[in-house]
Each structure stands twice: as C-alpha cells, then as structure tokens.
Amino acid sequence: MLESGGKVLKEGLLEKRSDGLLQLWKKKRCVLTEEGVLLLPPKQHDHHPHHHHQHQHQHIHPQHTGHTGKVKQLHFANIKTVDCVERKGKYVYFTVVTTEGKEIDFRCPQDEGWNAEITLQMVQYKNRQAVLAVRSTRQKQQLLVVPAPPGHSKTPRGSAPSVA
Asked: Is residue 17 one of the residues assigned to a domain?
C-alpha cells in the first residue's frame, strides 16, 4: 500500500494520542504522500521535538524508512475527514476520522500546518479518484454504443441498389 513507494510531500514529527486508558501523547514520525500518511516511531537521532522537512523529490520505500517498530498506514481511501481543529497554546489539535468511524487525535505546533497539509492531500486524492471514476464510466458508455436495429440498412427496404 503506502509503504510500496510514493513521493514524500512532507515529513516530520507529530504527536498522536494513544488509544490506551491514559491517552498519552506519543511522538510519531509522520510521512505525508499523495496516497496517505505513514506513522512511524520517531528516529533515534531526532532530538528536536518539532523538527520537520519539506521533500519535493524523494520517494519512500519500506527499506529506507529507518524504523524498527510498528508502522501505521492511513490511506486516504480510508479517511473520511480531518476535523475538530482547535488551537490551544502552542499546539493545533485535530482529529482524523476513518471511513469506519474511528477517530485518531493528533497535535502539532501551530506553525507546522499538518492538519491543512493532510486535508489538502486528502481532497486532491479524492478528486483524482472521482476523475478516474468519471473516465471509467465514460469509457464503458463508449463501449456500449448501440448498433442500428436489424432492417435499418442504408438501402430502403424493397428497392434494389442502383447500378450505373
């Protein structure tokens, strides 16, 4: 899926609220692509908590992610919306809602704009899928061209073709 490759649009640290009873904020290395978001354990050498990069020409491959822990993939096909954006103190809090209704809470420093970037890429992904669906429907319609019913030839019925 996402790990198979894709252009890295943004990479950096986000904090994700854990599903456990205490709901602690855990740092995750986040990689945004045109297909979705990869959440990986933070790199050991990332000491700056809000370190992020913009990558325009890099691609992500599983052998190059540099992780040893669990990878969580949020594919845009499985994301319904990004909402509950709230600014509190130095953080922006937002929720990714999956198509199954699961809510995943994140926070990041206000100046990093992760919520806007994820939303923008999700909308662009869904638009690309809609365009592909319309093209597919049009191609199917073109293949279903209705042939002329029998008996409707160019020569009127009962008359012989003219021979010069």
From this structure: yes
Residue with tokens 């252009």: 7
The residue with greater pLDDT, 76 or 161, is 76
Count of domains for the chain: 1
d(CA 116, CA 94): 10
Whether 82 maps to a domain, the answer reads yes
Compute the chain's Rg from CA coordinates: 26
> Which CATH number fits the domain that encloses residue 73?
2.30.29.30
Long-range contacts of 43-48 (CB under 8 A, 24+ apart): 43/67, 46/13
Query: Taking a C-beta distance cutoff of 8 angstroms, is the pair 19, 26 a contact?
Result: no
41 pLDDT above the threshold of 70: yes
Which residue range forms the structural domain that includes residue 29? 2-141
pLDDT tens by residue, 44-58: 654 444 444 444 444
Which tokens belong to 158?
A: 């009962």
CA atoms of 17 and 105, how far apart (whole Å): 5
